[in-house]
Structure prediction request, 283 residues.
Amino acid sequence: MSRIIFSTESGADIPKELVEKHQIQVVPMHVIMDGKDYLDGDLSVEEVFDYHSRTKKIPSTTATNVHEYHELFTKIRKTFPDSIIIHIGYTSKASASFQSALIAAEDFENLFLIDALNVTGGLAAIMMHAVTMLKEEPSISHVDLIGKIESVVPKTRLAFLPGSLDFLRAGGRVSNVAYIGGVLLKIKPCIELIEGKLVSTRKYRGSMSIVAEKLMRDYLKQYDINRKQLYLIYSIGLDESIKKRMDEIAKETGFENVTWMQAGAMISTHAGPGGFGIAGLEY
Prediction:
């Protein structure tokens, strides 16, 4: 029986220990600073924020290209010659990466692509659910497994609060008028993935410690999230007391497992320092 190998992009922000444990193959996305191209993963988040502190400029990001996907799939095929590759990709509605993967995949057999229509913790939640299903049912056919993965894509919920409107504005997610109003009134927009697109769904007012808890409670009230697993995402700079409080709420509301994920350099260029997010799968 052919072995199933999973792959995804660095924008999934899957913790290194989980990547290594499950042999998930990760291809880097890109961060651009002063015209120089850095691979997400090679560039630290601290360097991104330090660059902004020094220059007052926000790095930009670019998608993984066709050549890089071709190299990834070739490497997997050489390492696991008889494998079936299932690539669960970063939303096609916010990046050209998935289209590049589709083009590269034309040269390979037994390679299947799934558009996760999600990013960071949402993409990670789908990937880890796929890993768990395969572990629980190792003899499952790739056709059945792909069908089950695709069925959870529309049930995946991701919401996050950017730590800085400066970074969100630079990425074109808020207008200058909204930015000025947000800064003056200390408003933090909640960003969610709706049908694969990043959408501002509600606004919160106050310090991050206050609005993070509001978001958590609103999220759990709005969505019937599977209590087996919750993913909490943070960008460097989020206060430890906030993380502790989020853990307490997760425990109070019945979650069996909570996995914290740090936003990588690519995601952090949009979220800014001190951001917070939540991801899970609905029943």
User: Anything to note?
Assistant: The longest strand covers residues 197-205. The two ends are 31 Å apart (CA to CA). DSSP finds eleven helices and 13 strands in the chain.
